[in-house]
Amino acid sequence: MAKYARIIVDISQEKLDKTFDYRIPERLKERLKVGMQVVVPFGSRKITGYVIELTDEVDYDEEKLKDVLSIAKDSIPIESHLIALAGWMRQNYGGTMNHALKTVIPIKAKKKQVEHKSVKLAVHPMEAKNQLAEYQRKHSTARARLLEALLEETELDWEVITGKLAVTGSVIRALEEQGVVKVISETQYRNPVGHLTRQGYVHELNEEQQHVVDTILSDYEAGVRNTYLLKGVTGSGKTEVYMELIAHVTSGGKQAIVLIPEIALTYQTVMRFYNRFGDRVSILNSRMTPGERYDQFTRAKKGEIDIMIGPRSALFTPFLNLGLIIIDEEHEPSYKSETVPRYHARETAIERAKMLGASVVLGSATPSIDSYYKAQAGEYHLLTMEKRVHEKPLPVCEVIDLREELKRGNRSILSERLTELMEERLRDGQQTMLFLNRRGMSGFVSCRACGHVIKCPHCDVSLSLHSARNYGEVGRMVCHYCGYEEPEPQNCPVCGSKYISGFKAGTEKVEMIVKQRFPQARVLRMDMDTTRSKEGYEQILSGFANREADILIGTQMIVKGHDFPHVTLVGVLAADLSLHVSDYHASERTFQLLTQAAGRAGRGEQPGEVVIQTYDPEHYSITTAKEQDYEAFYEQEIAYREIMCYPPVWNLLVILCASRTEETAAEGARRLAEHAGAWITASGKKVSVIGPADAAVAKVNDIYKKVIYLKTQEYATLVKIKDMAEKFTRDNRDYKDVMIQFDFNPVNGF
Ligand code: ADP
Ligand code: ZN
Ligand code: ZN
Question: Given the CA of residue 205, which atom of ligand 1 is nearest to it?
Fold first, then answer.
């Protein structure tokens, strides 16, 4: 039972850092929880505040602390709920309470809300006419113009008057002082969907869709709250299911949050929701300013909207009567935060839903291994949709062995078969997409003759190539899980070929090769360079959709969620690229990307074809993606995770130690690992400690980064180790120059 409570007396955002400590009296010890609103003495007054942390240590002189007086009686305000959620996040993901609060409570805008002002007549029209005659007599033309206009239309926007009528603000104010007109001002919270036109429509659900909706709603009606995993092939109509569920929940006076990865949050998606729900919907996106985001949260709090759509952070929309959280494309790594606290939106959504009595629906065509594992274990309720709404067949998929191409003397990135099919498409006026999976460009080394990839003998992840430190030396191959190192090979250790190197082709190079090979083709390229601006991104997409190009070359950006009906060929240039990143999710990502890429072909009338080029055609993520067989992939992958003790079978905690000098970082990591080892031995728990090793990016901005990996079965044990590590590094002066961060079950490497 904690002795002290840390309290924020004013939740106005800028002051989040300003907390006060109070002693918890015996009679409140059992009941006091993070998030609760309490009454405390403050100077000579009594005020209310929120408990943001319970602790046994205070910096302040214990004697001078005052007692918490009581727990406030009112119903739970939304702030209490969000603070409690922040407390849960802090506990489960590490970091400070302040980090957590800043994540869940939006920063208040410094700028004022946009004010909407209009002007009305304040006098009877008869009197106004007399006044008008007076102005005309005195040649007060601006005043006359304004009155004339107001006699025609009883209310005018401030902007119309100062713009079209060219009447200045001071003239309006002068008339207001005379009592002739009245300025009406209302604070307007910017409505991001306000400019859209609605075309209400509702599809009648098919049998599969209806079954899913019925299952969830009958639970919901019975008061059962659950997490559902909706596994539905692309085009099976998941979005229609979401909308039907939302319609039901909101008609009962509750609210809904829909999380969609930013990249899939397209105009079309927003329109589908808007068409059905109109102004009750709002959206968030990362291009909004903090002020705009704050506005949307304010609208939610005031009850002006009941559906929020957005990426990860939309999860914290301050709805108090939340009935439903939907996470579309739940397998997307972007649902994991890469800044402290490194929370996963899926787990956090489930926690938030539990606190408020809401249901959660996770949707995907290729569920994450984590979620499918939980569904198998009965923790989530699995629902499936196997039919595409318009009964379009899935595309035909071929795998091309690039080793064979090399043997035949073709050293190009385009195989003979892919070239042939591209020629056909150009002849028939159909479109091709070429996908270069760049996620894996972290420098693995592979043999182009036999496909062999250099791996760590201890961790079964590929080694990363670090270029030579000095001229004349060879590069080093490093394992980012355990620190193992070996020199860069000159020949393949398996077949002896000299074609062993890091894979280098980028999208630009591919574009050059394609233009050389098909001079007549119109080519578009989409990658980080061509899409710096949002306009760039949308220009390329709409250009390609309007058939202004024959071939679109791109990174994963092009495989997510866009519908191009004239694409009948998708080529994956080197499927292995994502297979050999030093991350245990490599196979999972590869399977997902290949399945998604394949899903781009044949969305229109013509059937589609997919060509997957690879140096590793027997790899299960490639063979199962070819067959679009999720179950088969899952079986193999979960067996691998089991053998390697990786999540979701076990849990993994990565502790990062960062410092300005390599010695400080290394020494801090070494001592922490040692201390953790002693703690583990004493606790009798089965935990394996791996490392310290260099982080995948070992130095950023002159900050050196070391990592320690801890694997165990119970998540709760890892939380205890985090608490222990926080205490150890806080109490120990040697760590004053070492930054410590935690990542539980990392999804993007560390
Ligand atoms: P998913 O999200 O599973 O990929 P969508 O919800 O986007 O699928 O549906 C795919 C297409 O089918 C969309 O154009 C959608 O409007 C249409 N659609 C979905 N359900 C129905 C239905 N019951 N009747 C007619 N069209 C539907
Ligand atoms: Zn080889
Ligand atoms: Zn290793």
Answer: 23
Tell how strand 500-502 and strand 523-526 pair up.
unpaired
Tokens of residue 104, six digits = 């869940």
Q: Name the DSSP class of 439.
A: G
Closest protein CA for atom 18 of ligand 1: 237
Query: What pLDDT is attached to residue 425?
Result: 95
Whether the CB of 365 sits within 6 Å of ligand 1:
no
Q: Which residues of the chain carry a pLDDT beneath 50?
A: 440-441
pLDDT confidence of residue 606: 77
Neighbours of 174 (CB within 10 A): 15
Each residue's pLDDT tens digit, 542-554: 889 889 999 999 8
Structural contact between residues 747 and 336, judged by C-beta atoms closer than 8 angstroms: yes
Two structure tokens written together for 576: 């292995």
Q: Measuring CA to CA, how many Å separate 228 from each of 223, 250, 308, 378, 381? A: 15, 19, 20, 10, 5
Check: CB of residue 633 under 8 Å from CB of residue 641.
Answer: no
The single-letter DSSP state of residue 479 is -
**Percent of the chain as helix, strand, coil, to the nearest 5:** 40, 25, 40
* Nearest ligand (C-alpha, residue 616): 2
Ligand nearest to the CA of 451: 2
Cis peptide bond N-terminal to 341, omega within 30: yes
Residue-wise DSSP of 160-218: HHHTTT---HHHHHHHHHHTSEEEEEEE----TTTT-------PPP-HHHHHHHHHHHH
587 C-alpha to center of ligand 3: Å? 17
Of all ligands present, the nearest one to the C-alpha of 486 is: 3
Q: Is 234 in the pocket of ligand 1 (CB under 6 A)?
A: yes
**Residues 451, 587 contacting (CB under 8 angstroms):** no
pLDDT in tens, 28-53: 988 888 888 889 998 888 888 888 88
- Three-state secondary structure call for residue 659: strand
Spell out the residues 6+ positions from residue 395 whose beta carbon is closer than 8 angstroms to its own: 570, 598, 599, 601, 602, 607, 608, 609, 610
Spatial distance between the Cα atoms of 207 and 205, rounded to a whole number of angstroms: 7
Amino acid letter for position 686: K
For ligand 1, is residue 614 a contact (CB within 6 Å)? no
How far apart (Å, rounded) are the C-alpha atoms in residues 52 and 127?
60
